[in-house]
Amino acid sequence: MLITTLEKAMKIGAVCLGTFDGVHLGHQAIFQKTRELATQRNGLAVVFTFHPHPGALVGRNQVGAITTRQQRVRLIANCGMDVLIEHPFTAEFSSLTPAQFVDEVLVKSFLGATVVAGFNYRFGQAAQGDTSLLRELGAQHSFDVVEVPPVFVDGIVASSTRVRQDILAGNLANIAACLGRAFALQGVVGTGDGRGRILGFPTANLHFSPEQVLPPSGVYAVFSPVWGYGVGNLGRRPTFPQANITLEAHFFSPTPELYEQELEVELIHYLRPERRFADQESLRQQIKQDIADAQGVSSDAQAYTLHLAT
């Protein structure tokens, strides 16, 4: 359940604090601990987070979002949390000192609940507060604080910063290892110029929000939870240039018109970089090769071959 204000009738057992961008394995460990503590107290397991991302506040360094708002809500719900509170992150809210944050938020809304935070949690104006200070303030206000240790993946801490770096570098295997799932882009299907259909390979043209962090441009084997496997070109289409980066996804199974629909597409495997072709026929032949290559990493390869034969 997504809410922006807490209802007084709710019995909160435990609440975890953080931005939780990406909902990686470290975040999932925090959610698991929060659920365990909430169950022990016969109360709800609550997530207290923010929207928009604190890094998007004017005057601060811009931080690319790993997950869209809709993805984060769904992923947190899938982790078994009962309530997600998205507090508006405003300039006024960001100016609260650590003590004021505890007084105005934790004491007023979650008094009696156990507070859960990751080992690297920071809070208050200019991120002055850490878990040690949170524990001190908790003792003053009679609430318990539980710190969740880091989760290591291949000897390195799973973190949103690490995932962003891997996305920018295109390290899909590393991203999946930290997230515990394939990396997925979400956006709205926009109208294109119909060139994919002219070439014989209709595509869904996915447009992204400006704050979303994107991997390197190129051709990828992709997967949609709704439409199955396919191949997609991420970039500006150098043969037929466009201003914005989009994902043109061609799915192996027939799809209806998807214009203006929200669509999530997982990037399964990087196939090749974008490049400019001399003419449409050269591009058509390369798309055929891209499809063949995508079939090699897709469990739908045989189904797609059967579909072409009918």
Secondary-structure topology with pairs:
Layout: E1 2-3, E2 12-17, H1 25-40, E3 44-51, H2 69-78, E4 83-88, H3 91-94, H4 98-110, E5 114-118, H5 131-141, E6 145-148, E7 152-153, E8 156-157, H6 160-169, H7 172-179, E9 184-190, H8 195-199, E10 204-207, E11 218-224, E12 228-235, E13 246-251, E14 262-272, H9 280-295, H10 301-309
Parallel strand pairs: 1-4, 2-3, 2-5, 3-4, 5-6
Antiparallel strand pairs: 7-8, 9-10, 9-14, 10-13, 11-12, 11-14, 12-13
Helix pairs in contact: 4-5, 6-7
Task: Please describe what this structure looks like.
The chain is of the alpha/beta class. The chain folds into two domains: 2-155, Rossmann fold, CATH 3.40.50; 182-309, Beta Barrel (Elongation Factor Tu (Ef-tu), domain 3), CATH 2.40.30.30. 33% of the residues lie in helices and 25% in strands. The chain has ten helices and 14 strands. The chain has helices at residues 25-40, 69-78, 91-94, 98-110, 131-141, 160-169, 172-179, 195-199, 280-295, 301-309, and strands spanning 2-3, 12-17, 44-51, 83-88, 114-118, 145-148, 152-153, 156-157, 184-190, 204-207, 218-224, 228-235, 246-251, 262-272. The strands form three sheets. Strands 1-4-3-2-5-6 form a six-stranded parallel beta sheet, sandwiched between helices. Strands 9-10-13-12-11-14 form a six-stranded antiparallel β-barrel. A two-stranded antiparallel sheet has the order 7-8.
